[in-house]
Amino acid sequence: MPKTKVPQNVKPEGYWRAIGAFSIDLALTIVAIVLLYVSIGNTLIYKAVDYAGDIAKMDAFMEGTALVNIKAPKSYGYLDFQDKEGEVPAYQKYIDRVWNYFTVLCADPNSGYDINPPMTSFDNEHDFVPFTGEKTVENIGKWVYDHYFTSNLWKAPVKEGTQDPDYSKAPIPAEDPTGREAKLKTAMYDVSTTTPKGTYVFTVSHILAQNKYAALAKTERLHGWFAWMPWFAVAPVIFFFVIPVASRNGRTIGKRIVGTAVLGSDGYTAKKLNIVLHYFFPTIYWFILMLPYQGITFPLFVLLLLVEYMTLVMTHNHQSIHDKIAQTIVVNAKQSTWFASREDEEEYLKSHPNSYVAKLRRDEEWESNPRYAATTAAIAAQDAIVDSTTIGRARKEAEAISSFDEFERKSDEDYARRESEAKANSELQEEPEEELSEQQKQELADLAKMEGLSEEEGSAALEEEEPEGEEDDFADKK
Which residues contact 338 (CB under 8 A, 6 or more apart)? Predict the structure, then answer.
């Protein structure tokens, strides 16, 4: 795609102005989303979908296991039992609850807790091995021993009158637990690492993988989405589409504050369709956030914004992707002068020949003149000459200059003067020759006829006679 040349009186916006305008509009949008959610979503919509009922059902399901803290802030938490004098050891509390969950709740087909939920592993290190066989307490107990109490810290009690392990009863410490309570507790619930682990933690993972819990959680998320997402559509549409499309020169509130405006890519006032396209695509980005896959949608939203900004930074006239599609350009409104159309600009230049815009147009015409390149080359060649004269002149100029800013100012003035002189000389050289008057043309024709000369030869003869006539007239006057 060829680069779009905009007039010199139109200045594309800078990077920081683009960030500033977007940040202001983004902040206003987020504030509007929160206010709409608090005033409408958190009251009317939550009540309409019975969101409180969803939470109560999830709490009841988790509380029935006796393995989760349902009062933990924001989400369910682990139970953190501590060893206290006069109470059952902490490790025993974990064992009793884990054993009850598997051998009682999961063994009951009507409880809603499935012994084989849809899971493949407890974490990245421990695979889940499904239970097979008849759901008896002893069979489930044997399965629990094989996959949950694999440490040599535990053993099964023996059946009365035999040495055979009794898998229908909860595990006991393999050795005297006195003085080893902390180690036994860590085997059940280890919080020494970033991610908790242990038999108790694996059991909670088993609960969270239950089909019933997944269904309850899905309903809760869906109803929460109903309360939030409408405002993710309404607020961005207001601040990123309705306001700029309805305003003059496509200015959002952020653009008004930082002083930018949207024009056509040619530097003239943009058509309404171009403004609509300019804001259509950024608005669509917001709708991506409405999709229920937040693990994907939010990173995608951020990625699209980064691509847009990088395109703005690296392209000509600082045009982002939606600018190129809409054929628009965002300009610094405080440093730009623009017109509705080229015709309006021409009329203005005719009525204001000495205006700043007219001067810029004359400069643009001069720069497009083939003589401009030759002139700048000649000035550069002149500046490149180093002899005693130029060195002496430069030394005197340097002595008269008191600061670097003054040096740059005088250099710019000198260059502008020489360029102006070259431009004036060029205009003189390009002046067309005056046309012959009718009388001169007739004399030329008569002379050619009398002398038998061609028209060109007659013209040359006429030019030779004119100085003599002027001298005679001058002599007579004297």
Answer: 7, 9, 10, 263, 267, 268, 269, 331
- Whole-angstrom CA distances from 54 to 61, 104, 105, 113, 322 are 11, 26, 22, 18, 42
Asked if 177 and 101 touch (Cβ cutoff 8 Å), the reply is no
Q: Are 52 and 46 in contact (CB under 8 A)?
A: yes
* CA gyration radius, the chain: 44
> 148: which residues sit within 8 A by CB, 6+ positions away?
98, 102, 199, 202, 203
Copy the structure tokens of residue 14.
């800078």
Using one digit for the tens of pLDDT, what is the confidence trace for 27-73?
999 999 999 888 888 888 888 889 999 999 999 999 999 999 888 76
Q: What residues are paired with 121 via a beta bridge? A: 127
Q: Which long-range contacts (CB under 8 A, 24 or more apart) does 316-320 make?
A: 316/3, 316/4, 317/3, 317/4, 317/6, 317/12, 317/265, 318/12, 318/13, 318/14, 318/15, 318/18, 319/4, 319/265
CB 452: neighbour CB atoms within 10 A?
8
- In the numeric block, which tokens belong to residue 204? 């909670």
Q: Which of 146, 201, 197, 205 is nearest to 171 (CA)?
A: 146
d(CA 230, CA 226): 7
The string of pLDDT tens digits covering residues 289-323 is 777 676 788 888 889 888 988 888 888 788 888 99
Q: Where are the domains of the chain?
A: 369-429, 433-468
Please say whether the dihedral angle defined by the alpha carbons of residues 109, 111, 117 and 121, taken in this order, is positive or negative.
negative
Question: What distance in Å separates the CA atoms of residue 263 and residue 270, rounded to the nearest whole number?
Answer: 5
- Provide the token pair at 125: 């290190």
Q: Say if residues 320 and 311 touch (Cβ distance below 8 Å).
A: yes
Query: What CA–CA distance (Å, rounded) separates 236 from 33?
Result: 9
